[in-house]
Structure formats: structure tokens, C-alpha cells
Amino acid sequence: MLRKVVSHVGLILAVVIVLFPILWVLRTSLVPAHDSYSTAILPAVTLDNYRALFADKDFGRNYLNSLIVAGLSVVLTMPLAAMTGYAFARFRTGGRIARFATLASQMLPPVALALPTFMLFRTLGLTNSLLGLTIVYAAINLPFLIWILMGFFESIPEDLEGAAMTDGATRWGAFWRVVLPVAAPGIMAAAVLGFILSWNEFLFALILNGSSTATVPVALASLQTSNGVQISNVAAGVSLAILPLMIAAKFIQKYLVEGLSFGSVK
Amino acid sequence: MPAIKLNNISRDYGLGIFGVQDVSLDIEEGEFMVLLGPSGCGKSTTLRMIAGLEETTSGEISIAGRDVTRLAPRARNVAVVFQSYALYPHMSVRENMRFGMKMRKTPRAEQEARIAQAAEVLGLQAYLDRKPSALSGGQRQRVALGRAIVREPDVFLMDEPLSNLDAKLRGEMRQELVKLHRRVGKTTVFVTHDHVEAMTMGDRICIMRNGRIEQVGPPLEVYARPRNTFVAQFLASPAMNLIPAELTASDGGIALGAGPIAGPLPAREAAAYRAGVGRALQFGLRAEDIATEAKPGTLPFEGSVTAVEALGNENLIAVESGGHRIAARVDRHFLPKLGETVTLHADLAHMHLFDAADGEALVREA
Predict the structure, then answer these.
(1) In terms of DSSP bridges, do strands B187-192 and B155-159 run parallel, antiparallel, or are they unpaired?
(2) What is the pLDDT at residue B170?
(3) Which domains does chain B have, with CATH numbers?
(4) Which pLDDT value is given to residue A261?
(5) What average pLDDT is seen over chain B?
(6) Residues on A contacting B at a C-beta cutoff of 8 Å
(7) How far is A252 from A257, CA to CA, in rounded Å?
């Protein structure tokens, strides 16, 4: 009994330590600006910080930009990642070198790619454009998502496709009608991860895009002005920025827990 | 015309590694052919080559007179039952069975009729709307069979379909499969490593080793006349006793010297194995051909008991004699103690002789 109490107290403490910064940001976003740095827990509640963010700073547009760029890049990446991941998992496509190159591309620091990308995109007229940033995010996330999906496809028994193909399906039909539905939880999880990565990306968004096409991380950084950090606005912006991630995390949890064990094979 | 004709087929993985090498086999229409062998002998690879799931690097495969060697699996009209069952986990039992017919554009009414019929035969009516995850192992196995049956293929290919079931269920399914085969009458190729399945189910069995065929024939014939020591040992449990031996001519007859089992051969065996005199041989005798009492045509030998397995209906004992371990299947009332010295009798009417060098059986001349 005592052990149970102690372990629960410990766990509660850990939860508070982890959640405290997030909760304090939420608290700061909801109190008047002059109370931002006070230690009072909730001296007053107001939505002024949010109002100011949308009215004075055009945060709505930044938010929409982020949603468009992150969403579109996922839509663009997932079919490519699924097909490439499947090819890597099932055939000897490109051999070990292709697999390694895919992973190796992730080891390069992003800043090494930022300047060449900027020069290339300026020539193509893709700077300061949501399309340009979408393409960049798709390209950055593709190798990572290929790698994740390859793992999911490898965990699906090959006999399933054998059964589908002797049942009359083509290889493509087996992929489409059997493998994809079975891999759905993995694909959803990968899509959510891809979305989160794009949503949080800062460096390329800063370098490639201007104010009209700025995303949430860039907009939040711009609140650090020569007059100091507008902490109440930042807190409101961060609270809103976390929202899609929390929804996404919920999704990931559901799908990952669901897992791949459907009882198709013993 | 055979239902399936394998003509010198090989699966070459490169670097001189073969999954299957120069296999030729004719499987007749309606026949139940069992491919039997230890792990890695190429039996599953052969089956997958027939299905088109494994590339045939040389040779030809024909099904119902049609060369299918280069055809995709879907164009071969075969149905495969996998060891893992490979049921589509996101589909109900009904949809699993329907999938193949849908792919082949079977009319809807016909689909329903075939599903209903298969469900009745296999006792699956109550489970048609369940997902595979909500079924027991035995039920999943039936769904896998049902999925194959409704397709009405030219050939059934079964890759160790019973190996995931518990012993009792396996025995039941064995009999059901045989019944089903009689009823449907379709050519079936059945892969297993279990010699009991092979003996009880096959019209013929094909024993494989290292990617090659060792012997093909009706089960009892292969059991009675194994072509070599591998077949002799693989097709029984306990494996056939093998003892280095020689035959010598003496007093107009022939004498056998096989470790502790030594003495004159009975006249029939002496006549049959005359060609073996003076050669380096292996004497083979199955465990059940060792008796506890003397009979005409037996040779006695003594041994010290090293193992006793009382199975209830019979006992398996092992004795050590002159450096040889000899297994015997004896009556359940014959229950010696470990270390006890017993006298057993080798029944020479059922003896086998193999060449010591290549393991090939000596042909009985009479």
C-alpha cells in the first residue's frame, strides 16, 4: 500500500514537472500583459492577448499558412513514402546503398541545405511562396517517412500479398487492397509525424519566406522585438501552436496502440 | 495429361545456391501429392514456384497442360493455403472468401452461393461476419480453406497448413482435409515436414532433400522400400536403425554381421541379397521389426536398456549393444528397467540393406 502511494506521488510529481511549463504558458496567455511576469497563479482572466495577436499581428494568416504548408506537404509525401517504403521492404530496390542514402540524407544538418535551397528557389521564383515551402518540407520529410513506413511494411507478412496475388490481384492490387489497409495505422502515425515536423520547422520558413507567407514559428519569433519580448502575445501564440500537436498526439496514440496485430497470422 | 507437370525446374539464388534443383514431377489429375522433407529441403519453394510466388530460374511448369512458368500467380488459377493462413485482417470471413471471386469478376449471386456452400461444409456459418482476429486457430484454418475452395481453382496448394494447430485439432483436420479432397476431387499439393501427415493423407509422397527429389511413390510403398538411408530414416519416428554390416558366404548360405545382430540369413533373404556379399553395407531395421520373442526368421541380440518411453499403447525402448544404439517399438507389457539387459529379436523378413558409401538401397532380387 505504502509503495503504491509513494509511486503515485512520484508519478504525479513527474507529470507536474513535465506539464508545468506548458500550463504556465497557457496561464500567461490568459492573464493581462502587466501580470505576465507576476507569480500569482491567475490574477485575472482575459482573452486580450489572443485578440491582439489576431488583430494587430495577422496571426490568423500565419496559422493558415502553417496549416496549408504542413497539410499539403503530408499529402504530397505520403504516397511517395508509402510506395518507396514498400519497394524497399519487399524488393531489393537500389540495394543497401539506396536504403543507406535515404537515412544518410537525414544526417546532414538542415542549415547545410538552406543556402543552396534558397539560391535554387530564388531562380525558380519559389521563395516567399507557400508552394516552395511545401516542396521543401515534402523533400525534407520524405526520407524519414520512407524509413518509418519501410519498417511497418516489413512487419506485414509477405504471405498476405501472396494470398492476394494468387486470389487474382496484381502486385499493385495486392498493395492497394491488402497491404495499405493493413498498414493504415502505421501510415496514419507516419502522416501525423510528418505534419508535426513541418508544423514545427523554423529554419527554412525563416530563410525562404517573407512576412505574408510566414508560418507560426517564424511569426512567434518575430514577437521578440527591439522593444523586448512581447511575452503575453508569445504565450497566446504558443498555446495556439500547441493545439494541433495535441490533437495529432491523440491520433498517434490511438493508431500506435491499435498497432499492426490484427490476428491475420498466428 | 498430368494436372501439374514440373520439368527440370530450378530456383537459383546465385552464387551456386539452389533452393530447388532439377526437380521433375508429374502430379495426376485429382491426386493428393505430399511434398515431404526436413526444413530447407525446398518443398515450400517448389510449392511457391508452382503458385508463381517464387521465380523459376530454369525448367518449365505446366498446369492443366498450359505452360505457366512465366505467368503471374493470378493467371495460374491455383489457390494457396498458407501456413500462417494469411487471412486479410481488415476483412470479415465473408469478404475474405469473396475477395478472390471479386478479383475474377464472378457474378454476385454465384459468389453468395459458393460462400454459403463452403461455410456449410466447413461449419463457418456462424462466423461469416467476424474478423479473423475474433476467430480461434482452427477456425482461421477453416476460413483459409474456404477461401481456397470458393475460388474453384484447378489446383490446391497447401503449405504446412496444419502446423500451427494443436495435436488434437491437427488430427481432426487431417481427416477432414482428406474427406474434403475426396469430395472436391481437385488436384492437391500438400507440403509438410510431418511424416504422419504424409503417410496418412497422400495418394503419393515425394520426399525431398537439399532441393532435390529423393523418392516418389505411394506412402506404404515408400515406407516398405525406401530408396536410400535418408528416406528410410526420415519416414518414421523413431528413425530406422542403421548399423554398419557385411554379408559373407558360408556353408552355401549367407551370414549377416551387423554389430550385435549376427547369424545366418533366412533362405529368402539370402537369395534376395546375394549381390551384397563382400560389400560395405548398412543394415537397416525399423523399430517395430524388433520383437521381444523369438520367431522363425529372427536373430536374437542382447542389449542394455538406455531409454524407456511408455506411451500407454506401446513402449519405445532404446538399447545399447556393442557400441550401437538400437530403438525398438515393443508391446506395452514389455517394460524393462533402465540398465537392465534384455534379449530382443531382429525380424529379418523386414530387413533393409544399403550401400555404406552412397546410402543407396540394395535391390531385393526376389
Answers:
(1) parallel
(2) 87
(3) 4-225 (3.40.50.300), 241-355 (2.40.50.140)
(4) 43
(5) 93
(6) 157, 159-160, 162-170, 173, 177-178, 181-182, 184, 261-266
(7) 8
